[in-house]
Amino acid sequence: MGYWRTFGLFVSGTLAFSWGLWTLLVFEVVPRSMTVPLIMLGGFGPFVGAVVTLRLTGRPIRTWLQSNLRYRIPLWWYVVALALPPALIVSSSVVYVTFFDASYAFAEIPALWMFPIGFVVTFFLGGGQEELGWRGFAQPALQEGLSAFAASLIVGGIWFVWHIPLFFVPGSSQAGVPAIPYAVGVIATAVVLGWLYNTTESLLIPWLYHASVNPAGGYFLAGVVGLQTAHGYGSYALLVTAVAIVLLIRYGPTNLAATARVRLSALVNIRSNT
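Above: the chain sequence. Below: its structure as tokens.
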């Protein structure tokens, strides 16, 4: 089956599951008390899309999971996955305050002990689990015929589109966030995650990065309100874009890594015994 058809099936399944749930919130079909549960449940859409596509195309789901979840990789990559998101958030807040006449809001910054709690929740329920679909399936599926950079851009674009209903749901992380800077940030992050995935050949590292980036937003030194401004979120998006450009120059678009890019066929076949 062609990689475009495989990717199309994945996108269809992902959007059908997530948007089907989030539409209930957009049109207020269900009580407000269902906002958080339905947002979290919809977050499993990429995983559902991946599993449905694997089933429809006759690929082994268990082998796909086992091949993706390698953990015997250098400790350095775990440090990068956990530390880079907070570093980007804090650095971008300094840029925002310095160049856009904003003020620090240290009193609004959560206690550091809250970060691990947010990390664990995000890892399992609050966004990290999305990586099972985005990087664990969509990225290697497209990399069957496209460069790693092109695949990252496409996955990043769909990743942004997938979030669109949440911009209209009060109480969601996307509510009140400027859409264009958010889109730039998501697509640039997809390139960074594509680099991490192809370099380590493990889904666990992008998963940890995603679980770290969500709670890290609370540590934007100008406060969450500052992060939700065009200049605030734009500062973060531009900084992540700069990192993505550096990675592109350093590793090139073909593999976005020093080794060959990961392909879905390898995950479900060759690497089944590794």
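Residues 3-273 form one domain.
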